[in-house]
């Protein structure tokens, strides 16, 4: 295992300690593993909390800040945060306007966020709502999930719901935006290699020298099929056609096209893939009105990518374009 | 070779075609391989041009835009751009106030930029100056370089000189800022794995399962020594002590600490390394006044990182903080 770490058991805390120094505008509790926007709780504002297993950086802690999340609680690598963490994050951002939990659809995450929400409501009396992200069209059920997994749409949803909250909209409105983004987003990924969880010390799964996993999950869960390596234009087809079939997107639709790197794939390849994805969308009369290209929801050093399409209307475009100031996504401020 | 590409001979063009769609605010000539800021030439402004081999993305094309580069010319992977490309980029950003070439110190790059500068001056009569970046302390001479190689400081220099140019400063002033940043920056990197140039189809060099290359170049050039894998805190020592010895930095200095990922190393490990680097700096009485953590000057999918320290004064802090709007670095706008 070739990794720039010390003790495999303390990777998350040490990384959070590094984040604290690199981003003094955040409040990082490396011990309790909660990352909070420096000015939280923001009076009158709905608080947005997300979290999940570590190893997907910059998700989620890299998206804490103005116009996006108020707090993130990173679990162990590829492991749900515990209810206490989520409760602490929820309390830290509760300004009396309610809190929205953004939860990727993995069984452990969903249960722990539910438990934390109950505890938070009992403690503070404030309202806590949850949106469960389930945009991955690859498989119906998966290794850690009943129903579809939550993947790339999480980034888009955190940005857009974050913008709605920043505008001072009430909890039900922010939750409506979040639900709308989830309902109108679809994702699928491909792995060219596995990755190695530090505490395990060996690759999560094995892929032959000439194989790739279409529809892989962000923890290396099996996807739709294992196929022979193919050129980027064929891989793009394998990823995009299922998205178009599922929503379904229609001629004339505008989309946000998010070409995400899983960690080990260089940016130059992501732009090659983006060109191929754009060609398919153009052929289907779909306009790329906004785009995002880079490693934003990763699987440690896994080589591969995922494509997320979010159908846009004028409101979602405005929410996407609104100012954001986080370690990983920043514009307008 | 597991890569998301089509024909290995056309990776750069296809990636540039993808960039053109993802970043409509840039003018991308995928055929001539020149990426220009959309509003260039900006009247009265010194034009900043950089370039070099591809495979280091987001460097350089990802740094084109307001407050940073006016144009970039990407060569083949790990290969200098040709003089014609550099000439075209220079002409495209020449607003009559002169053009600054930012050149990493590799023999091919230096020669081709010099030739392009002569041609540009002969054609337009406008002044062209060059700054050669040579911040890598690892080795005195290298595989493709007489003298020290140019690495991470390039990113910092492009940002700060770009801000100076954006303020309307004259060519000699912008060049002075660039020279100052280069003079006060030092870098060193480590590779845990090699990378594979698509046209070659096999890894550039071999590293044993328990080895790492201290002082590696961004094209896989040999560094200072090949040593056994070590914990992050020891790796940080091996990278930072030579930087401190070389400048030398002193107690009370403020620095920008740039922890760069070489491509294949996950962000969570970069933050672990950042924490260790910060510990060493603190122990030496050096203050991290600004920081940058992420994959900004990469070597395809190479696993590893580099550390760049830039000694700051008030002027450089202001130039770093100034607004920037590029695909890879953006704030304030």
UniProtKB/TrEMBL annotation, chains A, B:
Listed SUPFAM superfamilies: DAK1/DegV-like
Alphabetical GO biological process terms: glycerol catabolic process
Keywords carried by this UniProt record: Glycerol metabolism, Kinase, Transferase
Pathway terms, separated by semicolons: Polyol metabolism; glycerol degradation
Origin: domain of life: Bacteria
The protein's Enzyme Commission number: 2.7.1.121
Catalytic function, reaction form: dihydroxyacetone + phosphoenolpyruvate = dihydroxyacetone phosphate + pyruvate
InterPro entries: DhaK_1 (IPR012736), DhaK_dom (IPR004006), Dihydroxyacetone_Kinase (IPR050861)
The keyword Protein biosynthesis appears for this protein: no
GO cellular component assignments: cytosol
Domain DhaK: 7-331
One Gene Ontology term of the molecular function aspect: glycerone kinase activity
Protein's UniProt keywords contain Kinase: yes
NCBIfam families linked: dhaK1
Subunit relationships: Homodimer. The dihydroxyacetone kinase complex is composed of a homodimer of DhaM, a homodimer of DhaK and the subunit DhaL.
Official protein name in the record: phosphoenolpyruvate--glycerone phosphotransferase
């Amino acid at each position: 295992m070739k990794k720039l770490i010390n003790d495999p058991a303390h990777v998350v805390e040490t990384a959070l300690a590094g984040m604290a120094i690199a981003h003094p505008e955040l409040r990082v509790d490396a011990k309790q593993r909660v990352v909070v926007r420096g000015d939280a709780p923001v009076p009158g504002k709905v608080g947005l909390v997300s979290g999940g297993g570590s190893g997907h950086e910059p998700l989620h802690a890299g998206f804490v800040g103005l116009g996006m999340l108020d707090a993130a609680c990173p679990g162990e690598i590829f492991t749900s945060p515990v209810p206490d963490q989520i409760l602490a994050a929820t309390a830290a951002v509760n300004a009396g306007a309610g809190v929205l939990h953004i939860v990727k659809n993995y069984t452990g995450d969903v249960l722990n966020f539910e438990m934390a929400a109950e505890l938070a409501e009992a403690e503070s009396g404030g309202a806590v709502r949850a949106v469960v992200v389930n945009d991955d069209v690859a498989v119906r059920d998966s290794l850690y999930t009943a129903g579809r997994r939550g993947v790339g749409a999480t980034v888009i949803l955190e940005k857009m719901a974050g913008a709605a909250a920043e505008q001072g909209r009430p909890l039900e409105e922010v939750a409506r935006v979040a639900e709308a983004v989830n309902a109108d987003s679809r994702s699928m990924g491909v792995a060219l290699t596995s990755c190695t969880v530090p505490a395990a010390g060996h690759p999560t799964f094995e892929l032959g020298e000439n194989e790739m996993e279409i529809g892989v999950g962000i923890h290396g869960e099996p996807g739709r099929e294992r196929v022979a390596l193919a050129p980027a234009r064929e891989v793009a087809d394998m990823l995009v056609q299922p998205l178009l079939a599922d929503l379904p997107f229609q001629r004339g639709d505008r989309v946000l096209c998010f070409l995400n790197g899983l960690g080990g794939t260089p940016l130059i390849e992501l732009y090659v893939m983006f060109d191929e994805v754009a060609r398919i969308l153009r052929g289907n009369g779909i306009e790329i009105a906004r785009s995002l290209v880079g490693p934003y929801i990763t699987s440690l050093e896994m080589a591969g990518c995922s494509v997320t399409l979010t159908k846009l209307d004028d409101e979602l475009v405005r929410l996407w374009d609104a100012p954001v100031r986080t370690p990983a996504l920043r514009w307008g401020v």
